[in-house]
Amino acid sequence: MAKERLDKVLGHLGVGTRKEIHRLARAGLVTIDGNIITDAAFKFDPAMSRIEVAGELLEYQAYFYLMLHKPAGYITSTKDRDGIPITALLPEEWQRSDWMPVGRLDKDTEGLLLLTTDGELLHRLTHPRWKVAKRYYVELAAPATPEDVAVFASGTLELEGEPLQPAELHIGPDPRKVELVIHEGKFHQVKRMFAARGNQVTYLKRVAYGPLSLPSDLPTGKSRKLLPEEIGALYEAVGLREK
Fold it and tell me: 145-154, pLDDT tens digit by residue?
């Protein structure tokens, strides 16, 4: 890995603002491989170095990953433009300016939302070419039918003249409560698919994205870091080597 400035590395790891990091360095509170570094412009390889700030060992990682149980009422954005962004739900220690949501959820939609700082992983997870499965729990105004199952699976359903990839509709004991698996992520896709069949979605929740499912013990509005095996599964799902 190329050498990077100390202030850039510590900023990336969320230690503080550039001004705060310079202050820590001047105070002799930053060590690299046991050596006190007072120059915030000092360059080193963070992946190969032992970094300590005020006696605390920092674990360097190039990219970051979270899962969030999104509640209704929040927009899938990291900026406060048209409503409350999902980053408002994250604890202070996980606040970053470079979070990118993996696939959007409507403001009134709940469920699993992944966040990452790796743009290449984001691109592949959301691009239709990779056909990453998204599974939704759906409540409907009217019962779903076997004909809906067949139409969704056929790949003949069109939205605005554009055909959709085949989707899997699973009808349970109550045909108003179904699960739908899609492999792309067009604007309001699930709602529009059922609308095209003369039905209406009354409740929508994403319960899985690719190899990851929403944990039953992750409360609404809460988030957690992805486990190493979960990160590896995401990279494997889209043909990338973990970074």
Answer: 999 999 999 9
**Residues in contact with 112: Cβ distance below 8 Å, sequence separation at least 6, in sequence order:** 67, 68, 69, 70, 206, 207, 208, 209, 212, 213, 214
pTM of the model: 0.89
Report residue 227's pLDDT band, with 50, 70 and 90 as the boundaries: very high
Using the structure block, give the residue that is written with the tokens 């939302």: 113
Query: Matching CATH topology for 4-58 and 65-236?
Result: no
Tokens of 211: 């190899």
Q: Does domain 65-236 have CATH number 3.30.2350.10?
A: yes
Task: Write the CA distances from 127 to 87, 221, 231, integer angstroms.
Answer: 23, 27, 18
Angle between helices 119-126 and 228-237 (to 10 degrees): 60
CATH architecture of 4-58: Roll (3.10)
Bridge partners (DSSP) listed for residue 138 = 178, 204
The helix or strand, by DSSP H or E, that contains position 149, with its residue range, turns out to be helix 146-154
- The answer to whether residue 82 is catalytic is no
Domain ranges in the chain? 4-58, 65-236
What percent of the chain clears pLDDT 90, i.e. is strictly above it? 88
Give yes or no for residue 232 having a pLDDT over 80.
Answer: yes
Residue found under tokens 């990160």: 231
Catalytic member of 106, 108, 174, 217? 106
